[in-house]
Design a protein that fits this description.
The chain is of the alpha+beta class. The protein has 15 helices and 18 strands. Helix 4 runs antiparallel to helix 5, helix 5 packs antiparallel against helix 6 and helix 9 runs antiparallel to helix 12.
Length: about 625
């Protein structure tokens, strides 16, 4: 057998791994990516730069905006025009910087977009106000300056008002359109600096709204109301707050004023006691106020304003006048001695036929206190009141009075409800109804309870010269169903001297004629709750207080009586449950009263209104 070597095969030597294949980046793709990064970076930089510049423009516009108001108030219309031009330039630049297509396209980007949209909307609103509101109003101010609107020889030149009306109406509409646009911004989707800036702009719009509306409404109302389209007759009703009524005071005298193509004249004047009374109401009075205040509001002109609903009171007084004297009445205007004092600051002292001189310092005390010491006969008192009112009217009608001072005094009186106006013409009343001049019942919103606190004297005398009143209100959520409770705290104090029963005339104290001890003050207080709400509780000193309850135009009402001897003070708390509100905001309207110390009140002052914290432990659930 042949023997040989083994023939087994050796294992193969493993091959070296091939190097990985590298995918070569195409030069075109790399270029596109770099280009996109650069474009995005450029767009971001573009938007950031323009946003920064727009912010700078808006900040630079603020001094101009403030300058316009101060210039107009001071009568420096040249400076007002200069500031208006500066504001428009800055606002237009800001709007342009934030309104280009790139900016608008970027608004679709999540998170960033809402912020850009908010800035653009704010800039656009500012530009619209500067170009379509402020510029036109400044131009009109040059021809309708309050100084040129003052009475001269018993006439107001209506031509500037008539010419300004369409300009002002367009400006008013543009302002509200800009404000509405700004309200569409959802600040919850913006960063804090943007959201706070939008909120601040909204606040500025809210602050400007009363002034814009005052100018707009005046331009729409005054020409016709001053007789541009034919003669108008108005009742000028003097209210006496020494004997309070819900709208301000007992109606002491009534004058018929005629306005005919700007010429204003005093036609007739009567004491309130010479009008009526009637055995049956002269006009249809709704069941609500009749149940709360009685039939007197339809039968005695001195009591038509027991109700705080001024349009109802005024229309009833108008019917009483025409039932007595015939003719037609186109409107009713109220005022009181506090307003007279403010007018006297504009006119200077006025001599009264009886020999006295009325000044801004002595008008309130003379007409509401001293006159009762000098003239115990009510007929003499009425004659003095009529002479004083006529003297002030004639002084204003003569002209030569600083128009700005006169307008300022009237505006302040209107803001405190010491001047109220009702028009028998529905279109005009519709405009008035949007203002505090209308004297309508308080309005509520979904988040705010509109409440009213009104005072009616039931002493039957003139002791409210010494009555001090204050009101505080607050809201809280105290129920499991989330319905808010609104609490109104009403405090009254008798500041008459301790010896009032013997040192004050019987005509002032009442002399006990109606069962009220001389020197004491008895007041019926009507507290109106929020629309659709419910009356929950009435307490004083922790105890339930008796009261009359009812409703008036969908509002719950509590009417209670407080009697105070000299030096006494009492607080009554009234709680309402809001059925249509979700928030705890409270807005309070009150009867304009006197300070209770004999001091001359500021024309813009009314009953002090404060805020209180509501303790849910004390709330009736």
């Amino acid at each position: 057998m042949a023997i040989g070597l083994s023939q087994e095969k050796a294992p193969p030597v493993p091959a070296e791994p091939a190097p990985p294949t590298r995918r070569r980046r195409h030069p075109l793709a790399t270029g596109i990516a770099v280009a996109l990064v650069l474009v995005v970076a450029g767009l971001v930089g573009w938007i950031a730069l323009r946003g920064y510049l727009a912010r700078q423009e808006l900040y630079a516009a603020l001094p101009a905006a403030h300058g316009i108001q101060s210039a107009i108030v001071s009568g420096d219309l040249g400076s007002a025009r200069s500031s208006a031009d500066e504001l428009q330039k800055r606002a237009a630049s800001a709007a342009s910087l934030t309104g280009d297509p790139i900016w608008r396209a970027a608004e679709i980007v999540p998170w960033v977009g809402p912020n850009l949209a908010a800035v653009r909307t704010a800039a656009a609103a500012t530009e619209q106000v500067s170009s379509r509101v402020i510029q036109p109003l400044v131009r009109v101010a040059a021809t309708a300056d309050p100084r040129t609107l003052a009475l001269k020889d018993g006439r107001v030149d209506l031509a500037p008002l008539v010419a300004a009306e369409p300009v002002v109406a367009r400006a008013q509409a543009a302002f509200h359109a800009a404000a509405k646009t700004l309200d569409t911004v959802d600040t919850s989707a913006t960063i804090h600096p943007v959201g706070s800036a939008v909120d601040r702009l909204r606040e500025l719009f809210a602050e400007a709204t009363p002034a814009v509306d005052a100018v707009g409404n005046s331009a729409r109302l005054l020409p016709a109301m001053l007789g541009a389209d034919g003669a108008r007759n108005y009742l000028l009703v003097a209210q006496n707050p020494a004997e309070l009524r819900a709208t301000g005071g007992l109606i002491g005298s009534v004058a018929l004023i005629r306005a005919d193509h700007g010429a204003i004249s005093l036609v007739a004047q009567q004491a309130g006691t010479s009008i009526g009374p009637w055995t049956e109401p002269v006009a249809a009075i709704p069941d609500g106020p009749t149940g709360l205040f009685g039939q007197l509001i339809g039968t005695f002109i001195q009591d038509v304003n027991l109700t705080p609903d001024f349009p109802l009171a005024a229309s009833t007084a108008s019917r009483m006048w025409t039932s007595t004297n015939g003719g037609t009445v186109d409107g009713v205007i109220t005022m009181d001695p506090v307003v007279l004092a403010a007018l006297l600051r504009a006119t200077g002292p006025v001599a009264v036929p009886s020999g006295e001189t009325l000044t801004s310092d002595n008008a309130v005390s003379l007409l509401l206190s001293e006159v009762y010491r000098r003239y115990p006969d009510p007929a003499q008192q009425d004659a003095f009141f009529a002479a004083a009112a006529s003297a002030v009217f004639q002084r204003v009608a003569q002209g030569g009075t600083d128009g700005s001072a006169l307008v300022s005094a009237l505006a302040a009186a209107a803001s405190s409800r010491r001047i109220l106006i009702w028009s028998a013409h529905p279109a005009e009343q519709g405009i008035l109804a949007t203002t505090s001049l209308a004297g309508e019942l308080p309005l509520s919103t979904g988040t705010t309870a509109g409440v009213g606190v009104y005072f009616n004297d039931s002493t039957g005398a003139k002791m409210d010269y010494y009555l001090d009143t204050s009101v505080a209100a607050g809201g809280a959520i105290c129920r499991a169903d989330g319905r808010p409770t609104t609490r109104v705290a009403v405090t009254l104090a008798n500041r008459a001297p301790a010896d009032a029963a013997t040192t004050l005339p019987d005509y002032v104290t009442g002399g006990g004629r109606f069962g009220i001890p001389p020197g004491s003050i008895q007041t019926r207080v009507a507290v109106y709750g929020p629309s659709g709400g419910l009356l929950a509780a009435i307490t004083s000193g922790g105890e339930t207080k008796s009261a009359i309850s009812g409703t008036d135009r969908g509002r719950p009402v509590s009417v209670f009586t407080v009697t105070l001897a000299p030096g006494e003070q009492r607080t009554v708390d009234v709680d309402f449950l809001g059925m249509e509100q979700t928030g705890t905001g409270v807005s309070v309207t009150t009867t304009p009263t006197l300070p209770g110390t004999g001091a001359t009140p500021d024309v813009g002052a009314e009953s002090a209104v404060g805020s209180i914290a509501v303790d849910c432990a004390s709330v009736v659930k």
